[in-house]
Amino acid sequence: MMDELELLKKDWQKKEVAHPKLSYEDIYKMLLKKSSSVVKWIFIISIIEFTIPHLLYLLPSVNDGVKVYDSLGLKTPMLILTVIQYIVIAYFIIQFYKRYKEISVLDNAKKLMSKIIKTRKTVKNYIIFSLIMIVLFFTITTIGIYVNDDFIQSLELSGQDISHISLEKLKSIKLIAMLTVAGTGVFLTLGIGAIYFLLYGFLIKKLNRNYTELKKLEI
Amino acid sequence: MNKNLEHAFVTELESNQNIVHKVCTLYTNDKDAHNDLFQEITIQLWKAYPKFRGDSKFSTWMYRVALNTAITLYRKSKKRVQTLDYESVIFKIKADEYDPTEEEQLKLMYKAVKQLNDIDKALVFLYLEDKNYSEISETLGISEVNARVKMNRIKTKLKTILNP
User: Fold this and answer.
1) Domain count of chain A?
2) Which of A30, A38, A214 sits opposite B141 (nearest CB)?
3) Does A23 lie at the interface with B, CB-CB under 8 angstroms?
4) Among the CATH numbers 3.30.930.10, 1.10.10.10, 3.90.1180.10, 3.40.50.920, which is that of B88-164?
5) Inter-CA distances, A190 with A68, A97, A164, Å
6) Hey, which residues 94-113 in chain A have their CB within 8 Å of chain B?
7) What is the per-residue pLDDT across A158-180, written as a single tens digit (0 to 9) for each?
8) In whole angstroms, what is the distance from residue A60 CA to residue A105 CA?
9) Which domain holds residue A78?
10) How far away is chain A from the Cα of B83, in angstroms, using its nearest Cα?
């Protein structure tokens, strides 16, 4: 075997690849093309993932929900949650940017892979945080509707005449509202979670495989 | 963009392109993918070029960027082709050096190397390029001892592929 590999080595070094040699112009043209590296994709997809949870506020139902918080007496807890949320998001974005900037093709293979994986992990942690926040928001709202008798009044605030609706019916409206809010929360959490983990796997599959292969050498 | 820098870079890459072609040949299975990977390596080399200060040879620096691109940055994961088309592996053969038995042996060797995983291929590539273990370990980020151990394992692996 040794001899065969040595034979291959000699052969490898004296031969040129059977690929047409590229001219100066061919190479020059390549400089103008855009990279499609995994790092670039991670950057683009991460930016999208950072914004997705915020696009939720553009949904009319979520937006209306924010207005209803006032009447439900949830203004203060929601405000505190929002402030915490933005501080943490700022932290994640700074962390992500710093790690992204550290990625260098001039590092050795293992270091390069570990830096990319770390960058991606920042986004993973951000997504987990966002999902927890979504669950928290919807849980608080659901509980808010349950414990607050003014819920019916908050319906009145939205301009509906409720004087003709029976008490029984109002109770079931309250239950339906709670179920809707809780259901939306579960749906959004699972939906965003699924999209994220699919993308995560897709982007990082090959990288993880090779990184594991290198790490295995240390055991 | 600095025209002089562009000119210096393209000239260097043009004369050293064989290294990049060899990496592409190892890591891809068809012409399109080969060109695609070559393109990505060129972009990565160009992006890193301002950091190349000439304290090492251009070619030495190229190995690292080219391999990093092939193993890590290149996004399209290749399909595992079990029945490899030798044409995609073949190297130019000079007529006067043609030896049918040796050639047959080499064909099988190239086929076997193409079946290795990405990391093993990188080790074999550097070994074939006559890099010593210290350079191999620096390029991949593993210890020299581990590089040696790994290389021995790859030799065994190749043996198994060749003599199943």
Assistant:
1) 1
2) A214
3) yes
4) 1.10.10.10
5) 24, 27, 38
6) 104-113
7) 566 666 667 777 788 888 888 98
8) 45
9) 38-216
10) 20
